[in-house]
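seq as requested:
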Amino acid sequence: MTAVEERPSNPAAGASDRPIGFGRIQRKEDPRFIRGKGHYLDDVVLPGMLHGAMLRSPYAHAKLISIDTSAALARPGVHAVITGKDLEGLNLAWAPTLSADVMAILATDKVRFQGQEVAFVVADDRYAARDALEFIDVEYEALPPVINARKALDPDAPVIRTDLEGRTDNHIFDWEAGDSAETDAVFARDDVVIVAEDIVYPRVHPAPMETCGAVADYDPIDGKLTLWETTQAPHAHRTLYAIDAGIPEHKIRVISPDIGGGFGNKVGIYPGYVCAVVGSIVTGKP
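struct tokens:
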């Protein structure tokens, strides 16, 4: 005897035992969203929670000569000002990325792009933190920038990633997919081959309504770290924090609340997230 199980004609029927990928997945989050009951990162408020603000470089390429944070530290409500040198002492100046590279959490020797993170202020509220940024005195020595991707590969182009040992150019990424020999064979058989020297792709970037952010709460008693993040990859973040901060992975919990859009923009870890962790460790407060 043979039996053939027919798929339900109604996509909503038999949802519990139908194959994965067949039919529509019923959304369960809509009722709270349409009632304004979503819970986003900005809704996370912890007792005694401090706030952080980031100082960024106005230069695309420059040496960091000195950073004086004394005036900022003297501002009302300021608890800490963290620099790259502080992170070096904690072995947190650099962090692995999801693309098998490393990134500077806060610049130490030089800045490599306009807007790179230079210092992080921790204060009673976001306004005190932002106000204190103006009192951080940074001395830069401007270096020739690279503002064109094709010119970045010129032999005389200034090398940006001097942190990578042996780096003599700006060619930092290679990507291949498929069988190159088979591809060449296919083109060899074709009567007409059109070659495009340049494939122009416009600059694009995800633009979710909610920006990126994190709330970090480190408990010095049991050594546990809890983070609330606007992340699409909480498990990957937990692993990277364990590698970077040296905290056992089972003592790290990453919570992803409702997210106001992501589109891939919220997969990676940003320097501000790590600074929030360090700020909580240094001050003993979330």
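The first strand starts at residue 51 and ends at 56.
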